Amino acid sequence: METARSMGSTNRAIPFAPSLVRIDPALVFSSGFLATLVITTVMLLLLWFGVAQVDLPVWVSRLFVSDPVKVQAVSLGIHLTMGLGFAWVFALVEPHLRFSPTQNGLIFGVVLWVLVQAIGVPTLSAVAAVLRANDSVFAGWFASRLGIAAAIASLVAHLAYGVSLGVVYGRQPSR
What is the mean pLDDT of the chain? Predict the structure, then answer.
C-alpha cells in the first residue's frame, strides 16, 4: 500500500491506494460501437411499430441544420459520438460495480436514461422552444408532454444499450 489515511475519529490508519483501472481502447471502441448499433436498432424498430420516442441527436441536429438529409447525417454523427463517449464512461465506472456484466449494463442503462429524461430532454426541448418561439416543442420532464410511451421507449432503448455494453465490455479478461 502506498499511502495511509486516517478515517473518521479513530486514530487507526487505514491503508489506501488509488485503484488503477486498465482500459483497453479497442474493447471500449468496439463495445461502444456495438451498443450504439443496438440502441439505434431498437429505436428504429420501436419507431417502425409506431411508438413515439425521444431522439435527442435528431433534436440537436435540427437546431443547426434544416435539410432533412443533413439532419439525419448530423444526428447519426452525434449518436455515434455519444454512444462511444458513454462507453468510455462505462469503462471507467464498471470496475467499481460489483455485479455481473449484464447487471452492470442494466444499471448503467437506467442511469443514462434518468439523466437523459431528467436533464437532456427538458433542456434541449426548452432551448428549441426559445429558438423557435414555440412552447409546443417543450417535451417536459421525462418527456411527459409526449406521453408515457415515449419515456418507456427511451427506457427500453437505453436498457438495450446498457446490457449490450455490459455484456461485450464485461467479457474482457481479468484486469
Answer: 80
Query: Are 17 and 2 in contact, with CB atoms under 8 Å apart?
Result: yes
Residue 98's φ and ψ, nearest 5 degrees, are -115, 35
pLDDT the model gives residue 107: 96
Identify residue 68 by its one-letter amino acid code. Answer: P
DSSP 96: G
Global confidence as pTM: 0.77
Considering just the CA atoms, what is the radius of gyration of the chain in Å?
Answer: 20
Rounded Cα gap, residues 126 and 116, in angstroms:
14
What pLDDT is stored for residue 147 in this prediction? 73
Q: What span, in angstroms and rounded, lies between the C-alpha atoms of 104 and 94? A: 7
Task: Tell me how far apart the alpha carbons of residues 13 and 5 are, in angstroms, rounded to a whole number.
Answer: 6
